[in-house]
Amino acid sequence: MIGGLKTTLCAFAFAAVAAPAAIVYAGTDDTEQSAFREAVKFGFSGEAIQGGVMIGDAPAGTRNLSFDGETVPFDEDGKFIIAFNRDAGQAAQLVATLDDGQTVKKFINIAPRKWKIEHVSLNRNGRTASEAFKRRRAPELAQINAARSVKSDSAGWREDFIWPVKGRISGMFGNQRIYNGSPGSYHSGIDIAAPTGTYYVAPADGVVTLAASSPFSLEGNLLMIDHGMGLNSAFLHSSEILVKEGQQVKRGEPIGRIGSTGSATGPHLHWSMKWNAARIDPILLTGPME
């Protein structure tokens, strides 16, 4: 199970779920009804929090599962993953459709987080990207989007995630600057400062979906790994990438070396994660760095 899911599920985050009355059959005694209700409950580990990830157990007999209207795949044992974007709203809904056509619904209350917001007296109005940058950037974004669309059968999403490298954390997920009242982009990952050439490893099993052959304009030497079920990692600014596209990697295996390629002021590893379209906080998967 994912390491950052070691934290106990907050009691306030979820209301108890009872089976829909329509599928509690008449003529059964209290013990049978209680057992049936228990069988059609969702199970969870993790936190319902902005930037968070949860591993779930679908109710017995589930044939289809959706999260806020989008289909969610699940394993044969009913395990699935969902995640909450940095700016997720207050609530979400899971719906399981059972083999008999009945549905089980779960409303999830999403806890907000207090992000570090820095107000800067700097006028950024009128700053636009040059045409030359746009021409270079377009194929880079196409490669990134293609890599994120890969759906491998990796089971890395079910593992305890580890830190790809240990070092000084120089940037936290979710931090944001406000320029004279105009918000800039928030920090999409976590930055770990370490000397150039330091090895970093795969935080969990996965399949390499992108290993840049030359530095991208912003990300530098970019490496991306799919952990399965829509969960993926991106590693930016590498001085060297040690794996190839399509290669399967194991948790703890060296996959690259830290650098300062692309838009970076010094050597560090920028590690970002997404579940489908949701940007998530890696530290909630690993737990604090020891």
Polypeptide structure, described:
This protein is mainly β and 290 residues long. It is 11% helix and 34% strand. The chain contains three helices and 21 strands. It has helices at 30-39, 131-149, 283-286, and strands at residues 43-46, 53-57, 62-67, 70-71, 79-83, 91-98, 103-109, 117-120, 168-171, 176-179, 182-183, 189-193, 199-201, 206-211, 221-228, 231-238, 240-241, 248-249, 254-257, 268-275, 278-280. The strands form five sheets. Strands 9, 12, 14, 15, 16, 18, 20 and 21 form an eight-stranded antiparallel sheet that branches. A four-stranded antiparallel sheet has the order 4-3-6-7, with no helix packed on it. The radius of gyration is 21 Å and the shape is globular. Residues 3-28 have low confidence and may be disordered.
Structure, briefly:
The chain is mainly β.
Descriptive tags:
disordered N terminus, mainly beta, globular, eight-stranded antiparallel beta sheet, 3 helices, 290 residues, four-stranded antiparallel beta sheet
Instruction: Write down the secondary-structure element order.
Output: HEEEEEEEEHEEEEEEEEEEEEEH
Q: Residue ranges: pLDDT <50 for 5 or more in a row?
A: 3-28
How much helix is in the residues?
A: 10-25%
Alpha-carbon Rg, integer: 21 Å
The percentage of residues in β strands lies in 25-35%
Topology, please?
Blueprint: H1 30-39, E1 43-46, E2 53-57, E3 62-67, E4 70-71, E5 79-83, E6 91-98, E7 103-109, E8 117-120, H2 131-149, E9 168-171, E10 176-179, E11 182-183, E12 189-193, E13 199-201, E14 206-211, E15 221-228, E16 231-238, E17 240-241, E18 248-249, E19 254-257, E20 268-275, E21 278-280, H3 283-286
Parallel strand pairs: 8-10
Antiparallel strand pairs: 1-2, 2-5, 3-4, 3-6, 6-7, 9-12, 10-11, 12-20, 13-19, 14-15, 14-18, 15-16, 16-20, 17-19, 20-21
